Amino acid sequence: MAWVQDYLKGQSHQQLSLRQIAKAIGYSPGTLINHFGSYAMLLLHVNAHTLDALSDTMAGSTVVGSTMAPLPPQQALLAMAKAYLNFAQNQPYAWRLVFEHRLAAEEAIPEWQLHRIDQMFAQLKAQLIRLNPSASEDGLEQTARVLWAGVHGISVLAVEDKLFSPIDISKEHMVENLMTHFLSGWCNGETSFTQGATL
């Protein structure tokens, strides 16, 4: 899949095809289908490599220097958020494929991919429990996803250059605002999640 990963460094998957990949790596389309099961599953393997790289980048952002000393939890969460934003900006085509890719209705997401997704959220939850040891498992789960959704939203708008801000505010500053205010409220019990809650 190295060829596809290299391709995505400069071009969108929307211009990519099974026949093009097969020709580039010297295999027949049928051979690739026999190996992966479908073109969609082939791309899912590419996404697995992207998630591994993203997960490693986020994990590496939470330690300091050659001593590998862990950052305090709130700083670690902010570092992870910025690492996520930077990854999206530096590898937009591979990053987009992770979220734009769809399997056929009859194809379930394999366990090996679900495990990667769970591991990424586990990184967030590990820092959240350090920050708020009394948080419940449900609270950690929801908080991790709310934080990711907020950072992901900023990243999408940044990659698409559609922040449309009337003031001069950087993407990094937006992430800092989100993380600082949300985590402060969460730790103080001002942010909670209720099933079916309405504004």
Automatic annotation (TrEMBL):
This is TetR-like C-terminal domain-containing protein. The keyword Acyltransferase does not apply. Residues 77-178 form the HTH-type transcriptional regulator MT1864/Rv1816-like C-terminal domain. The keyword Oxidoreductase does not apply. It comes from the Bacteria. Keywords: Transcription, Transcription regulation.
